[in-house]
Amino acid sequence: MADCDFDTKLMAYLLPEPTRDGSKTTRGGFCEIPARIGIGTNNCVICDQISVINPRAMSIKGPIISIEDDADDQFLIKSVMEELDIPNELLFFNNGVEALLYLETTRDQPFLIICDINMPIMNGLELRERIDKNEYLRKKSIPFVFLSTADNPLIIEAAYDSTIQGFFKKENSFGDLKTRIRVIYDYWAYCLHPNHYL
Fold it and tell me: First vs last Cα of the chain: how many Å apart?
């Protein structure tokens, strides 16, 4: 251990692990653990062989909401999140109506909404408008960004007429999509906003 060892309690994110029979995987999650920690080389946290998450993730534990009707794109987004080791739960909704119902009824404080534009029943622009008009959802201050192939200037202008926090083009390349999502996630992980402290 390092010179500055001390006993404490830490919030740790336990990674999902296979069950003994290998048929299922346990769900990861945050928990409080007693620990003796020290600071090693490169300011790395050493915690009696327990891997501890970056402290910034403690305040961004809410789920990431992806509103995307294309099954292939859902698979790509899920794969990117897994490869980036993003610990937040990822929830998919196929259209704005499904997402709005969840947002209006959940007690969770979502960390981030990533929304497509073109979807059936209720598209992304309509969803954003409904959120803006809902006092309860406005006060939750959930960061909202569009991730879409719809890069028409008129659509982008319409999107920014509402209170979105970003518009990103959805790339077909896995590597490019990974870069986009990494930028989005890192920005909101460090950015201070009202739900950052919940």
Answer: 33
